[in-house]
Amino acid sequence: MKRIADLVAEHPIFADLDDADRELIAGCGRNVTFKPGELLTREGAAANEFFAIRKGKVSIGTHVPHLGDAVIETLDAGDVVGWSWLFPPYRTHFDARAIVATHTIAFDGACLRTKCESDPAFGYKLIKRFAAVMMDRMQATRLQLLDMYGNWR
Amino acid sequence: METGANPNPMLPKFLRVVKRHRELPDTWTLDFDPVGGFPFLPGQFNMMYAFGIGEVPVSISGDPARPETLVHTIRAVGKVTEALCAAGPGTEVGIRGPYGTAWPVVEAEGGDLLIIAGGIGLAPIRPALYHIFANRSKYGRVSILIGGRSPEVLLYPAEVRQWRGRFDVEVEVTVDTSNQAWRGNVGVVTSLVRRASFDPAVTTAFVCGPEVMFRYATIELTKAGISPNRTFVSMERNMKCAIGLCGHCQYGPDFVCKDGPVFAFDKIERLFRIREV
Amino acid sequence: MDTEGIRDLLQRNYENARWDDVALRCLSCTNCTMVCPTCFCSTIEDVPDLSMENADRVRRWDSCFTDDFSYIHGGNMRPSVSSRYRHWITHKLSTWYDQFGTSGCVGCGRCITWCPPGIDITEEVRAIRASEEASS
User: Fold this and answer.
1) Cβ of B274 under 8 Å from any chain C Cβ?
2) Residue from A133, A143, A145, A151 to probe the interface with B (highest B Cβ count within 10 Å)
3) Residue A77, domain extent
4) Which among A110, B61, B239, C43 is least surrounded, fewest beta carbons within 10 Å?
5) pLDDT tens across C29-69, in order?
6) Residues 6+ apart with CB under 8 A from B214
């Protein structure tokens, strides 16, 4: 049986953190799996957690009245889901839905925030990782907005 | 300069469309059966002439091992391509070629392959894929990353499904926008690079799609450790003569028609970051 | 005109501010390319007869200064005058060496004579060179 700290060590978002930091993070984590179609987060709900995907596929999307469910992007093993836990009012902005059976480590946001506040050096390392994720997603979204394959005439 | 049967390189052959197939609302595939076949290298193009309308360069998208059928997939984006897409069986089209450089499918043997195709960019790269599938044992890992606008406008869907069924290639498809009915990836094609498995030291990359797409793709490939001299891109420019004489496709010191369309990225990297060259 | 190292001079100055300066004067009228003895750009026209049975393909002069010279579906690769002037002079005096092993300029001065606003190719080279010396 693997410990949460072992699972944390395997996930790329936590790569190059030292063991002590991983233990700290693992203390706020638990193993959660989702069935296909199940929601990891629901738009508007309290953002208590974020998820590090170990296996599976998750869509980030929202509901567009009369058109249905739009998918903005999909995330895979090695990605993280959720950053609304970082900032008030801690509300989720989009639906995150498992497309296939998905294994994650779920982290308690309040627990991590407390640790970040009491250990700013640790907090900086964690926030830096999330900032990198946000930058990657932002840049990818900008390219999607370009509609590169569209006909611009 | 060409010699033999067609001594004047500016004189098209007149070929009749034998089959026309609608790929997408604005994209059609035309088949021709030229007498004596039409040998070409994957990545090369022809000048296609719609009578009375004009002539444009179009990549060949058929199987290089089956030269008896000449295949062109064309997207209607202007007057000439609209006329070509409307050319039903029996219509005569002027064709001259093949012209230009090829995807280095032989030079890439022995290593891994990473192929990135966006939108209609899958058509010019399909001949290379056919070659790779037919010579699969000569390559290491093969990853094919395909990007499209939305699931309904993905090119060659039946064939892509077939490729995905192969156990000896990794095929990932992603779209820019979609709904829940699509079970695949949503996101920009460049984000698939870090999910593909390859050894950057021995990987050759082929990139084909809109220029803005491969500008960002090459950044991702460099980040992944694939060197620019093993990254190949296919450029697109206005062409009139296709034999390096008319000046239209000039790109720095090169003519895209004869020094390209397939370039090793290190050869054009510097100019590539400069606008309006 | 000082041609010392001119091939490299222009190829390392694709982003020189001088191109915007010359673009303020250049009318993109194509005169320089029409009178240049080495300019070779051409286009193809199809000329059908009245019966629409026969057509001749005719080659005629073209210029890299025209709007549709670099047109591909939906857009123009060189929409700005600065990029067109840069393309012309860089080809003439620099990338010509890559292609033909020599300069594309014979020194006849016709492009200067026939330029309505009087743009002088030698003066533009001098300005590019001077901008480098000033910043070094």
Assistant:
1) yes
2) A143
3) 4-146
4) A110
5) 999 999 999 999 999 988 888 887 887 888 999 999 999 99
6) B116, B118, B207, B208, B233
